Amino acid sequence: MRITLLAQPLSVAVYALSTLIGVTAFVYPFCLASVPASASMGQAHSHDAPLVLIALVGVCLVAVLLEVQAHSAGAKRIALAGMLVSTNAMLRFAEVAMPGPGGFSPIFFLIVLSGYVYGARFGFLMGAMTLLVSALITAGVGSWLPYQMYTAGWVGMTAPLCRPVVRWLHGQGKWREVLVLAGFSGGWGLLYGAIMNIWFWPFAVGPAEQHWQPGMTVMDLLQHYALFYLATSLAWDVMRLAGNVMLTLSFGLPTLRALRRFQSRFEFSHSPLQAAQPAGQVASVPHPRQA
Hints:
By secondary structure, the protein is mainly alpha-helical. The chain has one domain (54-260): Arp2/3 complex 21 kDa subunit ARPC3 (Orthogonal Bundle), CATH 1.10.1760. Helices cover 70% and strands 0% of the residues. α5 (120-138) runs antiparallel to α6 and α8 packs across α10.
């Protein structure tokens, strides 16, 4: 019992630690006096990426164990997460086999909706593990992988921020909810690319006005990065934005219904009214759709 009570705060602490490690991994090169420039993007962070990946995978494993302890339906939630991650990984495999335009990828659709319905911690695991499993399937393992995992995890982790907006619009189960999620997914289509650029930008070579140099002021750094992003990534990321919006508008409502159906079954199977019934009697509990 004590382990179960401690699992919830420990789980929150693990996700907070994971986020701290991720942010540190992205920004620490900017604190160095110099970094080795490389014309090959794959060489960036080649010396520390394995350690970051091991730390992240370890954190995810601990988080999974704590999630099982923290919820009465934890094992079922983890099984569902495994199914969704597998589905999403196969979508990315299809994307690699038949590349879409620019940065379009179908994986963010499920990451956002899963995080929105099941919560920030579920969303983080969904994003991070989708990128890990899909990288193993598509042979996409490289020094960029842990940074992709962190950023995709943050996509799912922030999805519940849409809930207050949906409540304010009285939009749950309606098109207003889908429009909010479509806007959120589209925004992350740009933000994902902008964050991912940071993992290699300090190591990149090119025009001086577009790249980082030690000793730059914050304003100069932002200006140089904006020029770099506009020149190299904006058009690519716009395709991701458009794809995220299109998928959410096309499949958002039925997918939300399916995810909520799973959620209601978990809660229904652990109803306290049902548990309080004497043996041999059937609890008179309304179906979740009728409640």
